[in-house]
């Protein structure tokens, strides 16, 4: 009594994902234009770190994080293609006309869309620090009462004390000074989006901020729950008075919008390996046929297990295509009479869970593609590499009794087991 299980592995992959987070790019094109940056991140499983389920931020550091020791773990910085010009400063002016900096320091949600399938995921992003370079006015005579460059620079620096963050914001303990410029950075806690400095001196020609740098943190989605391929999204942020980035009433940014483009690429591994390309299954009682042949004792169950190796870092479904469909199951047919009886097929894959129930993939029943039932879908707890798994084929109770009514009969059928990584 034999049964053939021609199975084909259908592993449809959305091919070569790498996570891309946004890298800030874009040209300054006047007050009505938008500056853009690109952030890129990627995920690929690693046998050295099978439990790692985080994206790697591939965005090159620009700005303050290029300086050793300034950035914290997980923090990166980008330089914005933005200039900010200030008008005159006066110690007696309202605080909103001083050097004011408001940034989007609270977490922002960004929807990501898979380029091929339209499936969505969500990442979170926030600004953690702000830094820039200020420059003296063209004419030092514009700085009231200080015709000397070094004195003018000293007063501008001391007037705002840039290297010390105002209350509510954090010091980066960083400042670089030359004869006409000063570079600095301030940290913004999640709950404190605004830092303001009041000048101690009057500056009639104001100043210019360039090399604007922001630090950011990103919470990426779980890549093990995402399909292979490229996910993209964008975050639009306004620049100007009352905007996401507010530099005060005295400031004029070169752009009124910043677009942060996110590209996350996921490159899963998915492989099912059998010892033979088209394995055959022969159903038999556990322990053999001796009880039936010698004593006429009918077995309650005929079965055979088919081992395979599973490598996976993503979710997938498992379903069957049957030569003979019987009540949602595959069947085997009597070669002489064409009578068909059902067989049960289940799968065991250590380290995988059935997504609907959350149960471990232990003897999970499979259904025919034509049954109208939803095929079980599984997700890995971590990256699995060559994990020993098995399919089990079995004829039970009534099916066995029907088969034994025809001694010496041959029952067979083709079963294609489909491992499908697509939704």
Note down, in words, how this protein is organized.
By secondary structure, the chain is mainly beta. It has 2 domains: about 20-265, no CATH class; about 270-420, Immunoglobulin-like, CATH 2.60.40. The protein has 3 helices and 27 strands. Strands 1, 2, 3, 4, 5, 7, 8, 9, 10, 12, 13, 14 and 15 form a 13-stranded mixed beta sheet that branches.
Number of DSSP helical runs: 3
Largest beta-sheet characterization:
13 strands, mixed
Please give the alpha-carbon distance between the first and last residues: 37 Å
Low-confidence stretches: 1-32, 138-147
Proportion in helices = under 10%
- What oligomeric state best describes the polypeptide chains here? single chain
Count of β-strands: 27
The shape, in one word, is: rod-shaped
Give, in order, the helices and strands.
EEEEEEEEHEEEEEEEEHEEEEEEEEEHEE
Content-based structural category? mainly beta
Number of domains: 2
Nearest-angstrom radius of gyration? 33 Å
Strand content: 35-45%
Give the averaged pLDDT, no decimals. 83
């Amino acid at each position: 009594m034999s049964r053939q299980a021609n199975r084909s592995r259908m592993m449809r992959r959305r091919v070569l994902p790498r996570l891309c987070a946004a890298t800030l790019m874009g040209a300054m094109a006047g007050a009505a234009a938008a500056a853009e940056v690109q952030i890129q991140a990627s995920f690929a499983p690693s046998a050295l770190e099978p439990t790692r389920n985080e994206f790697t931020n591939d965005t090159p550091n620009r700005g303050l994080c290029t300086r050793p020791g300034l950035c914290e773990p997980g923090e990166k910085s980008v330089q914005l293609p933005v200039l900010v010009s200030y008008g005159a400063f006066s110690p007696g002016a309202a605080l909103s006309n001083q050097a004011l900096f408001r940034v989007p320091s609270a977490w922002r949600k960004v929807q990501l869309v898979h380029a091929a399938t339209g499936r969505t995921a969500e990442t979170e992003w926030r600004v953690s620090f702000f830094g820039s370079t200020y420059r003296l006015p063209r004419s030092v005579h514009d700085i009231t009462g200080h015709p000397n460059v070094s004195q003018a620079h000293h007063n501008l620096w001391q007037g705002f004390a840039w290297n010390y963050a105002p209350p509510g914001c954090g010091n980066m303990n960083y400042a670089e000074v030359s004869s006409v410029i000063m570079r600095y950075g301030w940290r913004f806690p999640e709950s404190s989006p605004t830092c303001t400095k009041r000048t101690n001196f009057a500056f009639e020609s104001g100043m210019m901020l360039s090399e604007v740098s922001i630090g950011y943190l990103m919470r990426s989605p779980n890549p093990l729950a995402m399909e292979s391929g490229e996910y993209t999204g964008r975050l639009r942020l306004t620049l100007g008075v009352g905007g996401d980035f507010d530099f005060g009433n005295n400031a004029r940014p070169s752009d009124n919008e910043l677009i942060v483009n996110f590209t996350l690429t996921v490159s899963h591994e998915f492989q099912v390996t059998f010892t033979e390309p088209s394995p055959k299954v022969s159903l038999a009682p556990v322990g053999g046929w001796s009880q039936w042949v010698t004593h006429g004792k009918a077995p309650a169950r005929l079965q055979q297990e088919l081992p395979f190796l599973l490598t996976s870092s993503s979710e997938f479904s498992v379903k069957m295509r049957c030569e003979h469909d019987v009540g949602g199951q595959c069947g085997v047919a009597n070669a002489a009479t064409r009578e068909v009886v059902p067989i049960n097929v289940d799968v065991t894959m250590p380290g995988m869970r059935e997504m609907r129930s959350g149960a471990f993939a232990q003897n999970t029943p499979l259904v025919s593609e034509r049954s109208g039932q939803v095929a079980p879908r599984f997700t890995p707890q971590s990256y699995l590499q060559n994990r020993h798994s098995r399919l089990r084929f079995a004829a039970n109770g009534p099916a066995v009794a029907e088969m034994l009514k025809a001694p010496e009969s041959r029952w067979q059928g083709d079963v294609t087991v489909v491992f499908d990584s697509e939704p």
